[in-house]
Design a protein that fits this description.
Keywords: Repeat, Signal, TPR repeat. InterPro entries: TPR-like_helical_dom_sf, TPR_rpt, Ycf3. By secondary structure, the chain is mostly helical. Among the domains are: about 25-180, Tetratricopeptide repeat domain (Serine Threonine Protein Phosphatase 5, Tetratricopeptide repeat), CATH 1.25.40; about 395-495, Alpha Horseshoe (Serine Threonine Protein Phosphatase 5, Tetratricopeptide repeat), CATH 1.25.40. Helix content is about 70%, strand content about 0%. Residues about 5-40 have low confidence and may be disordered.
């Protein structure tokens, strides 16, 4: 039996919204609490750093260049020159200044951290990592180096390392220092340490002016802790502000879950007006239309979102699925192809395209995608099951292996469907006793299901139990067996088995 397994649209939207919260720095930014060398040297250097902090980088650069030209060729002077150049976007010159500063003050962590920030802003993760690691060798508790090492670890999927660096980075900071605390809290929620996540947000819990990101994280934490109403109350505070697209989307999702379709649509319309280019809003609106069975409207919203974000996988999957529901398989396949071609495809992308190919009659193409899904994720039981089902005719022994693996991995709720695949594979492989055992069990569990009765009837006739086999075929027809299987059952009965 082929299984259609769609990841929850709500989960996909959660993932999209979560990525919007993660505040990865995209440009070089000098923080007010910048860690400069312990010995700046002169009051004049301190005033120059103040110029940089207050946005007067060009003025600062003129001043520091004059001091260096006048003979102040010290590590702190070149570090400040590098900071001013970095703020002005003169990246190569900035890095050159930091290199001089490193040679002049090799024990200073701040110069390595600052150089790392410039590399990070350029997307040069390797060079950034090298500099942050060098800073941590000099000061293992360097706040910024730890926090950016946390960002690197998070981007690489090393959650525990990210948490360790973030926690070290925030230790010693003021209670109401925000920084990466929202990112850290989300990771704690992901690893089921919700109490720590909420503890991180505690300083802002009752503040009327709590940042949006704090309320968003707290709402996630409360829901994860089973406090649904508390989470909704936090979202309602954000909705009242009208400043967070994520809050509007998430609150609409709760309305949708509660069957409050009008309220959900009202919020999403409001979100579209306030955030007309936000992909997550179009995605959620499409999901709402899909839940209402208005698939053509769902496609319209997904397509509108794709105009702003053409390679958004959630939108491409949504558009493909909505077309699939309308039996518009050519369009469903077009979006499925775009899904696989949008960046690096994962197992779920190949699985979905395989499902569409199979529905459209392209069994060989479906097999190729199912194999790709299994190669990327050997634990994907749905891909294993669907692959086994399509291999039962030409490669039954291989089908048995895949179906058995799927059964070992599948949740209990899916066992009967996977057992059907395994039973069919065993039958086609000539393992009649094994197949009969499986279908005897399936028929006993679901005596009013047509398919197990039909399969067992066919097997019994093959095993020489024609009378009972024909009775089961007749029963399967009475239970509503349809299509080619119903025709086969009638033919077998007319032929006496």
């Amino acid at each position: 039996m082929q299984i259609l397994l769609f990841k929850s649209a709500a989960i996909a939207a959660c993932l999209m919204a979560a990525s919007a919260i993660n505040a990865a720095t995209s440009e070089f930014e000098l923080e007010n609490e910048l860690s400069l060398p312990g010995q700046i040297g002169t009051a004049e250097l301190s005033r120059i750093t103040d110029d940089i902090r207050q946005g007067r980088a060009e003025v600062a650069l003129d001043k520091i260049n004059a001091l260096i030209a006048g003979g102040m060729k010290t590590g702190p002077a070149y570090e400040i020159q590098g900071l001013a150049l970095g703020k002005l976007g003169r990246i190569e010159e900035s890095l050159a200044a930091f290199d001089i500063a490193k040679r002049l003050q090799p024990t200073s962590p701040s110069v390595f951290t600052n150089a790392g920030l410039v590399h990070w802003a350029l997307g040069q993760t390797g060079a950034a990592r090298d500099n942050f690691e060098a800073a941590l060798l000099r000061d293992p508790r360097d706040r910024r180096a730890n926090q950016y090492m946390g960002k690197i670890a998070e981007s690489e999927g090393r959650t525990e390392d990210a948490i360790r660096h973030y926690e070290t980075g925030i230790s010693g900071t003021q209670e109401r220092y925000l920084g990466v605390k929202p990112d850290l809290a989300l990771l704690h929620i992901e690893t089921q340490n919700v109490d720590r996540a909420l503890e991180l947000m505690t300083p802002w819990a009752d503040a009327p002016d709590a940042p949006d990101v704090v309320l968003e994280v707290m709402a996630r934490g409360e829901v994860a802790n089973g406090n649904r109403e508390a989470g909704i109350a936090l979202l309602d505070r954000l909705v009242a502000r009208g400043t967070s697209s994520d809050a509007l989307v998430r609150r609409a999702r709760f309305h949708l879950t509660d069957g409050e379709m009008t309220e959900a649509e009202d919020l999403l319309q409001r979100a579209l007006i306030a955030f007309p280019k936000n992909a997550a809003v179009f995605f959620e609106y499409g999901n709402l239309m899909g839940a209402l069975g208005r698939y053509d409207e769902a496609v319209g919203h997904y397509e509108a979102g794709l105009e702003h974000d053409p390679e958004n996988k959630a939108l491409l999957k949504g558009a493909s699925l909505a077309n699939y529901r309308m039996e518009s398989l050519d369009e469903a396949l077009t979006y499925a192809n775009r899904l696989v071609e949008a960046g690096k495809p994962d197992a779920a992308d190949h699985l979905w395209r395989g499902i569409v190919f199979e529905k459209a009659g392209g069994s060989e193409a479906a097999i190729t995608d199912y194999r790709a899904a299994v190669a990327l994720d050997p634990t994907n039981w749905t891909a294993l099951n669907n692959l086994a089902y399509l291999l039962t005719d030409d490669e039954p022994q291989e089908a048995v292996r895949y179906a058995q693996s799927a059964l070992n991995l599948a949740p209990q709720a899916a066992h009967q469907a996977v057992e059907d695949t395994l039973g069919l594979a065993q039958y086609r492989a000539g393992n009649i006793e094994a197949a009969q055992s499986i279908y005897e069990s399936l028929h006993a569990k679901a005596p009013k299901a047509a398919l197990p009765a039909y399969r067992l009837g066919v097997i019994l006739i093959s095993a020489g139990e024609s009378s009972r086999g024909r009775d089961l075929l007749e029963k399967s027809l009475a239970l509503g067996l349809s299509g080619s299987q119903a025709e086969d059952a009638r033919t077998r009965m007319q032929q006496g088995g």
